[in-house]
From TrEMBL:
One of its GO terms (cellular component) is plasma membrane. GO terms for biological process: regulation of protein targeting to membrane. InterPro entries: AsmA-related. This is AsmA domain protein. It comes from Leptospira idonii.
Amino acid sequence: MKKIIYAVGGLFGLLIAVLILALVFAGSFLTNEFLVKQIESAINVRANVDKVNINLFSALSSVEVEGIQLAYRDNVANQGTPLSERKPIQSAVISIGKADIKLSLLGILMKKFELKKLVIEEPKVSFVMFESGGNNLTPLFKAPATVNGEPNPALSPEAIAERKKEEEEARAAALNEPSQPFSIKDIPIAIEMGLVGVKKGDVQVTMKKTGQVIKIQALDFELKDIDIDGSDLKEHNHIGINLDADVFVIGRSKNEAAKFILETKGDLQPFVVESGLVNPTVTYNVTMVEDSFVSGFAAFDALAGELPLLNQAGLKLDKLKEKAVLKKDVSFKVSYNNGKITFLDEPTFPTKNYDLQINKGSYLVITNNSHELKMGLLYDEEESKKSIAGVDAKIKEATKGQGDPKELRNKLLGNIIKGDRINIPFKTYGDLRNPSVQLGVDIGSISSLIGGAVKELIKGKATDALKNIPGAGNALKGLGF
């Protein structure tokens, strides 16, 4: 056991020495040409780096790289053509304006990794999800078949042939899987970081199967106050996170279906204290900012189809199909676990035409659009009054002005009226693009009232409650019962 400890300690010491020597001579070899060769030898891309800056007064701790571009691999990359002989990349799949890296070597000598700064500025990513489930980025991060005009010495001839046919994805993914779960307790260094983040990011995700495009713009992402020590996770297990972004959803028709202006903050415990394994569940504080909107929400189309009875009674909910713009900022908490977002409280989103409340425990799986959202829709007071007035007018017309139409209307619609506003609880589930909807109101009792008690009224056998409503018989005949 002691020999193993000594061997690990000696290896760690050697790595520190190599790192120090590398950084001492960084100014002589860390050039854009060098970085491009390293990138193109490691992954299946054509790369470009415009400039590398090293601060001579802190050469051990500061590196700045500008103009990073990654594109689909071509013969220029395969042959290892010098940068001076290359034409500019015309259509990069991934580009980064600048990467700024600062770390403390003194911390490394003390077995403490102190990253002062790692900020990526103006990254641009074009991500395409194919109908088969694959994507355009996966092939970029495989080992290349050809390096500097020769077969990649890191690959066997069989592997090279498979790579050229793009059949190596599954095998590469399997080989990259760790034999056991990663535990921070296996890392013999405490990690303390200043700022890690992305500024002014721009990501476009194209869904080939649905024709949808998701654009993430003005992306600012920060990990800060990073303090992790695998030997003392109880006291050192913290990451602060800030994420601001404008998220646009573009439908197949090329129209904006939604815009979400998001501000997210969180204080995370990234590892489980007892085991050191990665914490599978993370909690975020999210603010959806005023002027975010939804247009053409499929669940509302399905909801409208579930309300023929209300339409028959003269209650119109046509405003559900209009663009809904958020009138003020709304803050709420969600948890994230393997692509599943779960609401931990019950936020209400006020818009011009209605307020939408999402119940605690509702969830959305962003990887496949499956969901179960329990919601309550409270129609705008002004629009509610117009719709209710339409029902009253229909009753009044049928009764020729006799009696109070409100009494009969309340018998018909009482369990979906809250104060003077229409209130419809419902659940939407399945595929978010083509959801199923289940009403939370007791439609059965309304049907019973109209289809049972009302017919009895027409036959002269109504209950005492309905008998006492002046003009009820004529009103219900006018409504078609």
